[in-house]
Amino acid sequence: MSQPLTSAPDASALRGLALLRLRLDLEARDDLALPSFSGTSFRGLLGWCLQAAACPNRPPCRECRQPDSCAYSYLFETRAKGISEKQGSEEVPRPFVLEPPFGLRTICSGEPFRLGLTLFGRATEYLPHFLYAVEEMGRRGLGERQARFTLKSASVVRPGAPPRLFYEGGNATTPGRALEEPSSWDLSEMARQADGLTGARRLEIAFQTPTRLVSRGQLVDEPEFHHLIRALLRRIDLLGRVHGEGPLDVDFRQIVARAEECALEDFELDWFDFRRHSNRQRREIQMGGLVGRAIYAGPVGEFLPLLMAGQELHLGKATTFGLGRIEVRILPGGATSM
Fold first, then answer.
1. Domains and CATH numbers, the chain
2. Euclidean distance between the first and final Cα of the chain, in Å?
3. Which tens digits make up the pLDDT trace of 234-275?
4. Which pTM does this prediction carry?
């Protein structure tokens, strides 16, 4: 990711991080009661099934003698390669994001539902591992009642194109089969959706799943525009360092200074709380984040390449669970109220 810049980065500056966005079509085999936020359940079961497949003996990962060749270690216990000591305190980003169903609901037996999954960088090479793990998740069952489901099909979702089916799931007697080998694309392709729109002066950000932004060690409850841009710059840079072709080569300070010229004009935001069980800490953890929408005004169009990329990457903390999903909408100029 090269091309030094002193203003908001354009699409060409975001080259160097491969993306593969998937739509997994599932069908419940038992009644599946989902909590208000199910991302932690899906991620936990995915990790368990992936580890069971990659490491049948399951020694503690810290004792593993071959962490670099283990799919589970790379995907779930990602090491901080490519990150300097100065950045070592940053959370090392995992190379995937789940997009589970959001909201309290029951999926009845026989009912279809979907799970989104986006892979970044070298994780795209582990697509067969993910598909196997999702099928194994369905056999094992989700939640306390171990509600089973079936992977019916998998499609690639590419910017500006309809979903393309590439995998058909199997059944009790027939294994699943690949129809073709999907190809990844570059983060800059997502950012190019901003072409011709960088003169926009107002936009709306919808925080579709709980978003945890941190500033000066504290969770943000009124997200200024520069909070979003700081989080996106940091996330893209770290993903590039650990999973892509290198760091984001831009002038962070000047970009953030420009972002500070954009104002939070109006907002309707709520704090969404939920709890998750941490196997590592062996306790329940209270989590939460912002949901709702916010309107920003100023030279916001300059940042659309970053924001368009952010729609794929998510932003803030705990993105692998599905937190931090945003949607960008350009608004006409002039004053408005919600």
1. 11-17+187-330 (3.30.70.1900), 19-185 (3.30.70.1890)
2. 38
3. 999 999 999 998 888 889 999 999 999 999 999 999 999 887
4. 0.90
